[in-house]
Amino acid sequence: xxxxxxxxxxxxxxxxxxxxxxxxxxxxxxxxxxxxxxxxxxxxxxxxxxxxxxxxxxxxxxxxxxxxxxxxxxxxxxxxxxxxxxxxxxxxxxxxxxxxxxxxxxxxxxxxxxxxxxxxxxxxxxxxxxxxxxxxxxxxxxxxxxxxxxxxxxxxxxxxxxxxxxxxxxxxxxxxxxxxxxxxxxxxxxxxxxxxxxxxxxxxxxxxxxxxxxxxxxxxxx
Amino acid sequence: xxxxxxxxxxxxxxxxxxxxxxxxxxxxxxxxxxxxxxxxxxxxxxxxxxxxxxxxxxxxxxxxxxxxxxxxxxxxxxxxxx
Lengths: 222, 82
Hints:
By secondary structure, chain A is α/β, with parallel strands linked by helices.
């Protein structure tokens, strides 16, 4: 299993993402440069957190048009596994690979704290190593994390079982619609979430729950 | 020849706009009463050779039509100013 982790100018979580992927037994990871359209034969793509292209204009808006993203869009349409974390989630929404968009937090502040998210569905391939109802302790750190989808889209997402993670304990940190913390596309091969599973893979940082997202992807790959 | 154009981008009606709320709440502190419905958006100014491209530019990049409305302000030809 070979993970590819994208690095845009302004990305800051790519090294943690690579380290998280490398903790998965039998997996390796390599960085993919934003200007390079070649995905180097990776089996799954991680679009990590940060501030791609300075997040100028609108979060994720400019990254969406980079050469590497054109390839990621094709890769996803062919069924490839794509995980977007935080800014990566924003980029995937802008690219049209995921429904909805991320808006500024309801309290207008940068939030950085550990949150509990509840697994809504144990679904192949991103949450297969978790159980429905399980709580995962994972940090969030963002200013623009309020998930929004127009009411009719929200209904489609909910009825289609695309919501995989919700903020638990009535502690929705950013005002996201329906407490949504992570959502997949209809086909299920693209997943985006605001919490950072790559920052929760070592006991030293308080939780290893995030690793389950990465091991799920590896098991899906077989 | 290029023309000047302005694009106004604002949060879609019905979507909570925390920036607008913050400004609205700050105004009374300065003695400005009776202000409501404050929304904060973006102004994009550009010079463009073919203004017919503006619409698709807005749809693809300048705005996200899912969460934002945009308005192309009638372009002004610099040489017509006299």
